[in-house]
């Protein structure tokens, strides 16, 4: 019985020590989290669009997730910081003929610590696109 108690105490001690060695960001709670989700439908669209993301001086993290699914055309999506520097890009294109049904999915996940404050931009550059885009933005203060 004493051996079982000793083994239990040692196991608990190792568990506590292993948890302390993990990333403290996981356990610390932010002051505030802002989340925005946008769903954009494109119907044979070729008009470029921009989505603005406002990042303040006190914001410590920016997370951008973009998911797309298209059945026609070509789609390019780019992420720019407030100084106009490209921070990410992806593209998807349907390749099958019009007689076949095809759905092409693409995504981009970007996480930035201490992002530059100002107006970030997501540029959506479609060319004859049929499909949808889901943009999820999380700003942590």
Report what the structure shows.
This protein is α+β, with helices and mostly antiparallel strands. It has one domain: Sandwich (Jelly Rolls). The chain is built from two helices and six strands, in the order ααββββββ. The chain has helices at 2-20, 24-27; strands at 33-45, 49-55, 61-80, 86-93, 104-113, 118-140. Strands 1, 2, 3, 4, 5 and 6 form a six-stranded antiparallel sheet that branches. A hairpin with a 5-residue loop joins strand 3 (61-80) and strand 4. The relative contact order is 0.32.
Helix and strand topology:
Blueprint: H1 2-20, H2 24-27, E1 33-45, E2 49-55, E3 61-80, E4 86-93, E5 104-113, E6 118-140
Antiparallel strand pairs: 1-6, 2-6, 3-4, 3-5, 3-6
Can you tell me the residue ranges where pLDDT is under 50 for at least 5 consecutive residues?
Answer: none
Number of domains: 1
Molecular shape: elongated
Can you give the mean pLDDT? 85
The top-level CATH class is Mainly Beta
